[in-house]
Design brief:
Helix content of chain B: 10-25%
Low-confidence stretches of chain B: none
CATH class of chain B: Alpha Beta
Largest sheet of chain B: 7 strands, mixed
CATH architecture of chain B: Roll
Number of strands of chain B: 8
Largest interface: A-B, 40 and 37 residues
Organism (chain B): Limnohabitans planktonicus II-D5
CATH topology of chain B: Nuclear Transport Factor 2, Chain: A
Oligomer: heterodimer
Mean pLDDT of chain A: 93
CATH architecture of the largest domain in chain A: Alpha-Beta Complex
Shape of chain B: globular
Distance between the termini of chain B: 34 Å
Order of helices and strands of chain A: EHEEEEEEEEEEEEHEHHHEEEEEEHHEH
Shape of chain A: globular
Structural class of chain A: alpha+beta
CATH superfamily of the largest domain in chain A: Naphthalene 1,2-dioxygenase Alpha Subunit, Chain A, domain 1
Family (chain B): Belongs to the bacterial ring-hydroxylating dioxygenase beta subunit family.
Strand content of chain B: 35-45%
Mean pLDDT of chain B: 96
Radius of gyration of chain B: 16 Å
Order of helices and strands of chain B: HEHEHEEEEEE
CATH class of the largest domain in chain A: Alpha Beta
Protein name (chain B): Salicylate hydroxylase
Strand content of chain A: 25-35%
GO molecular function (chain B): oxidoreductase activity
Number of domains of chain B: 1
Number of helices of chain B: 3
Keywords (chain B): Oxidoreductase
CATH topology of the largest domain in chain A: Naphthalene 1,2-dioxygenase Alpha Subunit, Chain A, domain 1
Distance between the termini of chain A: 19 Å
Chain lengths: ~425, ~160
Amino acid sequence: MQEHPIHWETAGTSRVPFALYANPDNHKKEMDRFFYKAHWSYVGLEAEIPKPGDFKRTVIGERSVILTRSQDGQIHVVENVCAHRGMAFCRERHGNKKELVCPYHQWSYALDGQLQGVPFRRGVRQDGKVNGGMPADFDPKDHGLNSLKVATRGGVVFASFDHAVESLEDFMGPTILRYFDRLFNGRKLTILGYNRQRIPGNWKLMQENIKDPYHPGLLHTWFVTFGLWRADNKSELRMDEHHRHAAMISTRGSAGQAAGDKAQVTQVSSFKASMQLNDPSFLDIVPEPWWQLGDQMPTAVMMTLFPSVIFQQQVNSVSTRHIQPDGHGAFDFVWTHFGFEDDTPEMTERRLRQSNLFGPAGFVSADDGEVIEFSQQAFESKPEHHMLVELGGRDVGETDHMVTETLIRGMYAYWRKVMED
Amino acid sequence: MAKPLIDLQTWFDIQQLYADYASAVDSRQWDLWPEFFTEQCVYKLQPRENFERGFPLCTLSFTSKGMLKDRAYGIQETLFHDPYYQRHVVGAPMVLRVEDGRIHTEANYAVFRTKLDKESTVFNVGRYIDTIVQTPEGFKFAERLCVYDSEMIPNSIIYPI
């Protein structure tokens, strides 16, 4: 029997049960159905492993995997589980190696995961007889590392434990693909660095955070004051046909900084309309040609690719945010900030300066982690309760405004389809 | 023993600067913090992995005293967060070299965090890599780079390290 059975109050998804975030059995089922089957997960950027022999250890769901580039330049993703005794043998987070070796019994693997060497496979000769060894029918071909299906696009690497998964392009769908290709348009990426944070909340809450255009202008007063994210900006919410992925698209108003009547968009008394920066270079924003999409020039596109990753463009700051669940009550959140090979030194500086707004200490995203932690506290203590996700109605659909929680309802429509099947 | 790089009075003043800084950032009076820096200062909070791999990204990267003031304002007025106490324990600074009156020092630090009604935990551990200069108002940090080992941040960092 489940400790906290999941009960949806309605046929729709506008009332989300707290138990969805507090139930360990449900969590295991989510790992199996979303992270280990039928979905693509983010593993990294090609620019993180530019040379043959380069590797990066990372995670899909709760499983440790290694992203490698073999000597022929091919990219592979193998599970960090030795075929012999199961040891998660790769301990470095990155590096360059000719082969992968488990130190326990020195089983060695090529960078594509194929088993190459098994000590004492043919036994040990002593006093004219051969002692031990693997059985005669032992075939190294059958005992490589678990090799995942890999897809790359625009310099981004995805992998799946499920070799029958649909193509990456079908998985994203044409709507999301258009925004993905805008950001990752074929230019080589350069790695600016990492930020890591452990957020004591259920992993889905981070997907929800970036499917929720209701909060940015209210929680993050900084955003509103400088016109980066406002309820009255020109904006769109887009989804794939399954409603699992989404894009929040926003164009900073020509009005710029909020003042006077413009400040009214928040309708909250805590709003700091008079806030002025001592150093305005935080907001030294320069539009880039690649922002153009059709007849639009969005200044922010926040993409959620279910279940594992968020792709951020906030003005000149671009990053991937990798969701790495760890039990139902916590996840690690890894930010990889990047630039493009044709960036001028000034543009690199600008991206780095704007990164002060984001990440675990960011002016506008440190508080996202905080609110997730306190939501989780209530889910744990009151799992029979539910949350209310009814801004903009109770249905699911794309919009040309931000005053709605439709993307969260959409994600849970998909969740119910997969989990209740 | 090699001749010290600085005289005893300077050593005393640097010790005092370190102690005063730690006291200030633990005092919850955030407006004190920018005053330890020169106008054209650099303050960076950077995970050790980025520092060692040559990646420029910092968790926070400020390049003027004005930015530090903006951060102090953000802490007090715009950044929603769970309030916490913090306590810095800073090791004795090492004087690495003195060039053109700029004193280059390093010191280990540990910051403990205590949330209201919770136990104290190790929050952020690392080292300061500093450049200290003399000004009419005494010694100030021209640069303070906080390189931290605690790469997995426990949710968020709000207050200055």
